[in-house]
Amino acid sequence: MAIGILGGTFDPVHNAHLAVAQLAQRQLGLDSVLFLPVGNPPHKRARASRWARMEMVRLAVAPAGFLCSDLEIARPGTTYTVETLRALRERDARAEFVYIIGTDTLYQLPLWRNFEEVKTLTRFAVVRRVGEDVAHARAFAASRGVRADFIEIDAPPISSTDVRLRVQRAQSISGLLPDNVRMYIYETGQYAPAADMMERLQGALPARRMEHTLGVIDTAVSLAPRYGLRERQAYLAAALHDCAKGMNIDQMFSLTGAGPEWRQYPQTLHAWAGEILAESEYNVFDPEVLSAIRKHTTASSEMSALDMLIYVADAIEPGRKAYPGLHALRMLAARDLAAAARQCAESSYQYNKSAGRAVHPDTLKFLGIEKEEGA
C-alpha cells in the first residue's frame, strides 16, 4: 500500500492543499494521502492552536476521502519528521510512504534531524509548478541519495498567510478553503482580533486616554476612504495605537528590550511597546497595521498611506487641545495626507526642540534632517 504524507502547519488548511493531495494521488497512484498537521514545528509559529488546526484539517479531508492524523499534534515538544516516520513504520511496516514536499523543501532536507535515517524511511514526491525546470533539483536529490519522484502540480495560488490576513481585514475567504472550514474559522474566531478588544482597552487605559483613542478611531476611519485605505485596518491601528499607554516606562523598556539610548525620547517608546502588545495581547498580526502603530509617534523615512493616516489622526482627533495650526492641519489632512504628515512631523520637531527634548532619529530622517543642531 502506498500512502502519501502531506505535512504542514495547515494554518489554516485550504483548497491548494487539497488540490496538491488529489494531483499527487492521481499522478503517483497512491492508495491514500495522510494529512499530518504539525504540533510545535521547529521553524514556524502557528497562529491557531494545534487542536484548532487539527479540527480544520479533519473537516477539510473527510469529504475528499483523505486521511488525517494527530500523531504530531499530540506529541509534546518540538515536532521532528524522523520521529513521525518511525511511529508510522511501527504502525504499518508493510506500507510504502511517500512524503510530499516542494522543491524549496528538497534543498532543506539535509538539515532535517537524522536526515540519513529519514531518507531510508520514506520516498519523496517533489512538487513542481507547471513549466518549472527541475533538472537541478533532480541532480541535487541524486547527489544526496534521496529517493524522489517529481510531479507537476497546477494548484490554485492560495496561501495560508493570505487567508489569515483576509480574516484580519474582514475580507472574504469564500472559495479559498472548504465551506465547513470557513464556517469553523468564523464561528470560533480563528485569526480575528480579540473580540473583546475595546472592553480590554477600556480596562487598560486611563479614561482620558480612552477618549483620545476613540477620537483617533473616528478620525482615521472617516479619512480612510478618501485615500483608498481599508477602514478595517484604519480602525484596528487607531484602536491599538496607544494600547501600551497603561504601562509605566520601566515596563515598556522590559517589554521592548530597548537600549539606553531610548531614555532620550521616552515619550515615543509606547509605540514600539504597542506594536508588541497589539500582536501578543489583542491578536492583531496584520503587518501593515503593526507598522502604523509602531510609527505613530516618530514617523519614518518610509511611510505607507496607513502609517501616515494614523500619525496624522493622532495629531488632529477632535479631542486634541487647540494648538497653533491645528485647524489648518485638519483641513490639509482632508486633501493631502502626505503633506499633513509632514506638517505633523515639523510641528512635533519644533515642539520637542522648544521643550528641550531630543528628537527621535526616525523623525529627523522623515524630515530629511541629517543631524540635530548642537548634536
UniProtKB/TrEMBL annotation:
InterPro entries: Cyt_trans-like, HD/PDEase_dom, HD_domain, NadD/NMNAT, Rossmann-like_a/b/a_fold, YqeK. GO terms for molecular function: ATP binding; bis(5'-nucleosyl)-tetraphosphatase (symmetrical) activity; metal ion binding; nicotinate-nucleotide adenylyltransferase activity. NCBIfam families: bis(5'-nucleosyl)-tetraphosphatase (symmetrical) YqeK, cyt_tran_rel, nicotinate (nicotinamide) nucleotide adenylyltransferase, PRK00071.1-3. SUPFAM superfamilies: HD-domain/PDEase-like, Nucleotidylyl transferase. It comes from the Bacteria. The keyword Transport does not apply. Pathway: Cofactor biosynthesis; NAD(+) biosynthesis; deamido-NAD(+) from nicotinate D-ribonucleotide: step 1/1. Keywords: ATP-binding, Hydrolase, Iron, Metal-binding, NAD, Nucleotide-binding, Nucleotidyltransferase, Pyridine nucleotide biosynthesis, Transferase. It is an enzyme of class 2 (transferase). It comes from Candidatus Alectryocaccomicrobium excrementavium. Belongs to the NadD family. PANTHER family: NICOTINATE-NUCLEOTIDE ADENYLYLTRANSFERASE-RELATED (PTHR39321), PHOSPHOPANTETHEINE ADENYLYLTRANSFERASE (PTHR39321:SF3). GO terms for biological process: NAD+ biosynthetic process. The keyword Disulfide bond does not apply. Transmembrane segments: none annotated. Gene3D superfamilies: HUPs, Hypothetical protein af1432. The gene is nadD. Its EC number is 2.7.7.18. Residues 209-319 form the HD domain. This is Probable nicotinate-nucleotide adenylyltransferase. It catalyses: P(1),P(4)-bis(5'-adenosyl) tetraphosphate + H2O = 2 ADP + 2 H(+); nicotinate beta-D-ribonucleotide + ATP + H(+) = deamido-NAD(+) + diphosphate. Catalyzes the reversible adenylation of nicotinate mononucleotide (NaMN) to nicotinic acid adenine dinucleotide (NaAD). Pfam families: CTP_transf_like, HD.
